[in-house]
Amino acid sequence: MRKKIRLGISILFLVLSGISYLLYLQGSDKKVYSDELINSESRVFKENLNSFLNIAKDNMKISRQNLLAKR
Questions:
Q1: Rounded Cα distance, 68 and 35, in Å
Q2: What pLDDT digit, counting tens, does each position of 29-50 carry?
Q3: Which of 22, 42, 47, 56: CA 20 to 30 A from 66?
């Protein structure tokens, strides 16, 4: 019984690896140049970083106001 389970799992992984390889080949047909990739990813990163910094700055202002109000 265990041999059948191992064989089934092996066949399943073989099929999944074949599907993964085919998907990789389909995706590699698209040519994305490094400049395009860097620009698109860095734009998103900059937006997220600016958002994070603005939120942190606002929180620091609120904390400072709360500390001053307690005095």
A1: 48
A2: 666 677 777 888 888 899 999 9
A3: 47
pTM as predicted: 0.44
Q: Buried (b) or exposed (e) across 22-38, using 16+ Cβ within 10 A?
A: eeeeeeeeeeeeeeeee
Alpha-carbon distance 39 to 32, whole Å?
A: 11
- Percent share of the chain, pLDDT over 90: 49
Backbone Cα Rg of the chain: 26
In degrees to the nearest 10, what's the CA dihedral of 35, 40, 46, 52?
-150
